[in-house]
């Protein structure tokens, strides 16, 4: 099991993960990054535009191992008619 940090940013603002989280397999990083994005979206609920936000995942040496864009909130997705 390895520890990773899940930082969130839109290029101007950042939400840093100082403690990190244990992940059993690197194949689960995308799933965990999506959960982190959902948590950040919920904690900063006054925001409406998440288009530029990303989760950047780093190992404890600081090496970036994944960049995962925030997915649109399911209840806010608009379908073009």
From TrEMBL:
Lineage, top-rank taxon, reads Bacteria
- Please state every residue range assigned to the domain named DUF6894: 3-70
In terms of InterPro entries, this protein maps to: DUF6894
Specify the protein name.
DUF6894 domain-containing protein
**Per the UniProt entry, what species is this protein from, by scientific name?**
Methylobacterium longum
């Amino acid at each position: 099991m390895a520890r990773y940090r899940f930082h969130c940013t839109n290029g101007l603002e950042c939400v840093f993960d100082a403690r990190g989280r244990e992940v059993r397999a690197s194949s689960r990083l995308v799933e965990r990054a999506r959960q982190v994005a959902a948590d950040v979206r919920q904690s900063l609920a006054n925001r409406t535009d998440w288009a530029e936000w990303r989760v950047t995942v780093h190992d404890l040496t600081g090496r970036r191992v994944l960049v995962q864009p925030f997915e649109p909130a399911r209840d806010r997705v608009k379908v073009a008619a």
